[in-house]
Design brief:
Number of domains: 3
Number of strands: 18
CATH topology of the largest domain: Rossmann fold
Largest sheet: 7 strands, parallel
CATH class of the largest domain: Alpha Beta
Strand content: 15-25%
Radius of gyration: 29 Å
CATH architecture of the largest domain: 3-Layer(aba) Sandwich
Structural class: alpha/beta
Strand order of the largest sheet: 3-4-2-5-6-1-7
């Protein structure tokens, strides 16, 4: 915030890791510098919670905190607008209401967007343009692909909170077909230990019927219903009863998704979880496990329903990423599933089939470096065309998306350690890899090694293997000639190359041995 240029920073941290605390400290620094701070949140429930937190935190300081949302009466809203205009209001917390035309800040210094994944590109860009030249802080456990991509590409700054609070346990996560006996048993177990339960049913028309059905199974449980069509008084009373443990089960829609903090609720059940987005599922799971008790989350889908591939991948990601710090990995997986989106347009996600994601990132990195006036680093590349079985068969890995993902990982193998790590992962997930997969990994490692030696192309022609390079050194030629007497060729017309006859030797084995010889010769020439 003290730099000359306006701050534009993404703060990424798991739910309950303290992003709000960082935001409040930034707000305090802003106010103490004589400026106003605006905090934009996606829901009225979260606005109320942040307002109460801010008032409690700033009560011993000369800081005036106000809130703008649909729950604030019109008369009070007019008074707040005057306070904002005159500068009497220091910290303004609100929903989309604070970006409307009648809200005029006297001297805004910091704009904070909480739970940014809940806003569309249009809202965030409007917010940014309204306050050009103002410091911007964006908070999210699972940023949308477009935002994460901008941060990772260097267009935005990014900070990550990776250390969990003390005495926290990861949420035990189950992905399963909907089973009333299992879920009732899970609720009973939570109630027996004095806890409370969130039950997500995301259809207002049938939510009362669902609550009544639960009441039949659990006649002694105190059940409340909450959804977005309720008024302020009714909603406030429900939250009061939940916080003060006057209710055992809250049957609700996704209104609890953002920022709601009730530490005693430690079991979450979601109906039709396959219909939710990845970051939405992660945010909902973050509503439990906010104390020193073990929490449980049940993601259910209809029995015998055939799930779409994207839904299957989302649920698999939720099952896979359960440890602390998983929010960042969830966002990366969402980036893989949905694409990076349009940096200059309004799309939050997109696809890059025309160039591929790795190529897209490289082109984007070069463009960003050029805009910053930094030198563009050339990446060494080497193409390999030899007669060897190197591919991932469908019989070993059925899913096309998983095969594509694995091809990308294999392309990144740089050394022996990377090769062993990837083989361990394959054995763990899919069993012993066939020779074609092992050959593919070895070729990838050798290809990257060859690129570092200045080799641009390797071809198998006739009975020889040709290594094309721009500047073969005398040490390389001499070392190869001594190792393979009478089998070495050298061509200097057109593209220079060194050739070695196979002489019955397997191509991959010769490939490895030649690189070993050239690598030692290159190191000696560098010295």
């Amino acid at each position: 915030m003290e730099q000359e240029r306006p701050m534009e920073r993404l703060l990424c941290g798991d739910v309950g890791f303290g992003k709000t605390e960082v935001a409040l400290r930034a707000a305090m620094k802003c106010v103490m510098s004589g400026k106003q701070c605006a905090i934009l949140v996606p829901t009225t429930v979260l606005a109320i919670q942040h307002y109460q937190t801010a008032v409690r935190r700033f009560e011993h300081f000369p800081v005036n905190v106000v809130m703008l949302s649909r729950f604030v009466p019109q008369k009070r809203q007019k008074e707040i607008l005057k306070e904002i205009r005159s500068g009497k209001a220091d910290v303004i917390i609100g929903t989309h209401r604070i970006v409307q035309k009648d809200v005029e800040f006297r001297s805004l210094g910091l704009a904070i967007v909480d739970e940014e994944q809940r806003f569309g590109v249009a809202h965030k860009e409007k917010f940014k343009h309204m306050f050009a030249g103002v410091d911007m802080l964006t908070l999210s456990a699972t940023p949308i692909p477009r935002t994460l991509n901008m941060a990772m590409s260097g267009i935005r700054d990014m900070s990550v909170i990776s250390q969990p609070p003390q005495d926290r346990y990861p949420v035990q996560t189950y992905v399963m077909e909907y089973s009333e006996p299992v879920l009732v048993q899970a609720i009973q177990r939570e109630l027996k230990r004095g806890g409370q339960v969130y039950y997500i049913h995301n259809r207002i028309d049938t939510i009362e019927f669902t609550a009544a059905k639960l009441q039949r199974y659990l006649p002694d449980a105190r059940i409340l219903v909450a959804h977005g069509r309720m008024g302020e008084a009714e909603m406030s009373e429900i939250w009061r009863k939940l916080v003060e443990h006057e209710a055992d089960i809250l049957v609700c829609t996704t209104i609890i998704e953002t920022g709601v903090d009730v530490p005693n609720v430690n079991t979450l059940i979601i109906e039709n979880a396959d219909c939710f987005g990845l970051s939405q599922l992660y945010q909902l799971r973050g509503r439990v496990g906010r104390s020193n008790r073990r929490a449980y989350a049940y993601f259910t889908f209809q029995r015998d329903k055939v799930l779409r591939e994207e839904s299957t991948r989302r649920l698999a990601a939720m099952r896979e990423f359960t440890q602390f710090g998983s929010g960042f990995h969830i966002a990366l997986r969402d980036l893989e599933i949905r694409g990076a989106g349009s940096l200059l347009g309004g799309r939050q996600h997109g696809h890059m089939e025309s160039v591929g994601y790795d190529m897209y990132l490289r082109l984007l990195g070069e463009a960003v470096a050029e805009a910053k006036g930094e030198p563009i680093q050339e990446t060494a590349e080497c193409t390999v065309d030899i007669q060897i079985d190197a591919h991932i068969p469908e019989s070993y890995m059925e899913s096309l998306s998983q095969r594509l993902d694995m091809y990308r990982k294999i392309a990144g193998v740089r050394n022996q350690e990377d090769e062993m790590d990837l083989l361990d992962e394959l054995i763990d997930r899919y069993g012993e890899p066939p020779k074609s997969v092992q050959g593919l990994i070895t070729v990838s490692r050798l290809r990257n090694t060859a690129a570092q030696l200045g080799i641009t192309e390797i071809n198998q022609r006739g009975g020889s293997m040709l290594f094309y390079m721009e500047h073969p050194t005398a040490e390389m030629i001499g070392a190869l000639s001594r190792k393979y007497r009478g089998r070495v060729q050298f061509g200097s017309v057109g593209k220079p190359y060194l050739g070695v006859e196979l002489a019955g030797e397997p191509p991959l084995e010769l490939f490895r041995k030649v690189l070993d010889v050239l690598g030692k010769a290159w190191k000696s020439s560098v010295k």
